[in-house]
Amino acid sequence: MKQRGFSLIEVLVTLLLTALGLLGMVAMQVTSQEYQIESLERNTAVTLANELIEVLRSHRDELYHNRPPEAYGYSHLKSDTVFYGSNGSPKFSAGDCDLSTAKGQAGCVLKRIEKNLMGGKVERLCPSFNENYDCATNYQGSTLMLKLSWDTREACPEPSTSSSEHNNLCTYTVRVEL
Q1: Are 52 and 90 in contact, with CB atoms under 8 Å apart?
Q2: Which residues contact 121 (CB under 8 A, 6 or more apart)?
Q3: What distance in Å separates the CA atoms of residue 38 and residue 18, rounded to the nearest whole number?
Q4: How far, in Å, CA of 175 to CA of 161, rounded?
Q5: Which pTM was predicted?
């Protein structure tokens, strides 16, 4: 008599292989969601950094020693302004939010940074053209460096080197010509 069908071993092996495939797909889905969250946070940081840069651009007279009409163009960024101190720390806070003043407009952007990025802050804002993104002293150019930082639930793909005990700190650093 010839038997038809599957043996118990064949069925169990098939179930095991199917379960392993499903577990792999679930792990891939979780990883994909983590990357999506990190990408959303980074895009938010880029957008908010651009907003702050536009506030700075709209108030160039507060930033430069040489400016039109006395000079040919804008040059020689000040090392200390209403927006930042000579050590690179911002001089505005979210409490300064007031659209009628330059410092207040920057404060409103900082308020949005704090609201949209967990633990978000402007870490550095200063004239810079150094390789290591340090604030330059006696800088004659017009390149400004802006560094935002925020906390994440997962470890950031590019962990911050400024804080050895806190590896969930993401940063976005940009240099712009105002």
Answers
A1: no
A2: 110, 113, 114, 148, 149, 150
A3: 31
A4: 19
A5: 0.79
Q: How many CB atoms lie within 10 A of CB 49?
A: 20
Q: Using alpha carbons, list the distances in angstroms from residue 64 to 31, 102, 148.
A: 46, 14, 23
Please answer whether residues 111 and 93 qualify as being in contact, where contact means their C-beta atoms are separated by less than 8 angstroms. no
Among residues 17, 4, 36, the alpha carbon closest in space to that of 152 is found at 36
Tokens of 69: 């009409």
> Are 145 and 128 in contact, with CB atoms under 8 Å apart?
yes
Mapped onto helix, strand or coil, the DSSP state of residue 75 is: strand
- The DSSP output letter for 132 is T
The residue extents of the domains of the chain are 9-177
**37-87, pLDDT tens digit by residue?**
888 999 999 999 999 999 999 999 899 888 888 888 888 888 889 999 988
Give the H or E element holding residue 122.
Answer: strand 121-127
